[in-house]
């Protein structure tokens, strides 16, 4: 049994200048242009810019938290560990998505 209040439908398409307006194929299920699946934002035009923007926003928030930790006297040794765990991991993850998108666009 599918819960219709938690179900969304997304139709992938090629990026183009013309925007096709589609209607949901099942009544009661919302047609969306983007969806978050397993912590990754997927868009109907197969681009990754929304996901990269989200990851960079998380990095900015993490830098703010690190500044607050530094202001409260956290030793640099521990601050470096927090930086490695949060900022570097987040940035490498976003970079990986960006590079994948660039390679896909070069293939076409």
Provide a descriptive summary of the structure in words.
- The chain has 108 residues and is mostly helical.
- The chain folds into two domains: 1-46, no CATH class; 47-108.
- Helix content is 51%, strand content 11%.
- The strands form two sheets. The protein has a two-stranded parallel sheet with strand order 1-2.
- Strand 3 and strand 4 (40-43) form a beta hairpin.
- It is elongated.
- The model has no long low-confidence stretch (mean pLDDT 77).
- Main-sheet strand order equals 1-2
Secondary-structure-based class equals mainly alpha
What is the beta-strand fraction?
5-15%
How many DSSP helices?
A: 2
Low-pLDDT ranges: none
Strand segment count: 4
Q: Whole-Å distance between the termini?
A: 40 Å
Percent helix range: 40-55%
The number of domains is: 2
**What is Rg?**
19 Å
Helix/strand order: EEEEHH
Largest sheet: 2 strands, parallel
Q: Tell me, what's the shape?
A: elongated
Mean pLDDT: 77
């Amino acid at each position: 049994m599918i819960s219709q209040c938690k179900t969304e439908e997304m139709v992938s398409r090629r990026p183009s200048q013309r925007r096709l307006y589609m209607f949901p194929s099942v009544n009661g299920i919302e047609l969306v242009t983007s969806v978050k699946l397993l912590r990754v934002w997927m868009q109907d035009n197969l681009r990754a810019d929304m996901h990269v923007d989200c990851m960079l926003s998380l990095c900015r928030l993490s830098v703010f938290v690190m500044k607050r930790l530094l202001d409260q006297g956290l030793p640099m040794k521990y601050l470096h560990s927090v930086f490695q765990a949060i900022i570097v991991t987040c940035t490498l993850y976003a970079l990986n998505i960006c590079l994948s998108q660039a390679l896909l666009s070069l293939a076409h």
